[in-house]
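As a warm-up, study this chain.
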Amino acid sequence: MSDPDAATARVRSAASDLGLDIEIRERPEAGSLHEAADLLGVEPRNIVKTLVVKRSDDTYIFALIPGDRQIAWAKLRTVVGVNKLQLPDPARALAATGYERGTIVPLGSSTAWPVYADESISGRVALGAGAHGYSLFADSDALIRALGATVADISQPIG
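Now compare it with the structure written out below.
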């Protein structure tokens, strides 16, 4: 979605419909996770990546992963109950969510795909907000509850 006002309005509306208190802030572009964390005033682990993941039947899930970790594919496949998962190309991710990569958030997605959240997510977190140059802030427990997310060990340290 190229119109940042429309994209962030969609996110705000979805959060409101779920009774979720969020804050959306404009933010400068960052060159690294640590720079982004400094700009947002959070720890790297509190920047939560929303990854859209494709199942073999061409349906999707959202995986919420702390910024300082990565998907543990074997763990995620076990939790989801499938043998194969993959990251879709940018065009498929956009078609599946209505958001461009780097802005994806489950709130206001064009389809309400199931959400899986890593068990280590805690505290006040920052996520994409539907548009480049914006971040969404929310309490992680309230976010996970509002999204009806399945919480599990689905990540591992980067590297």
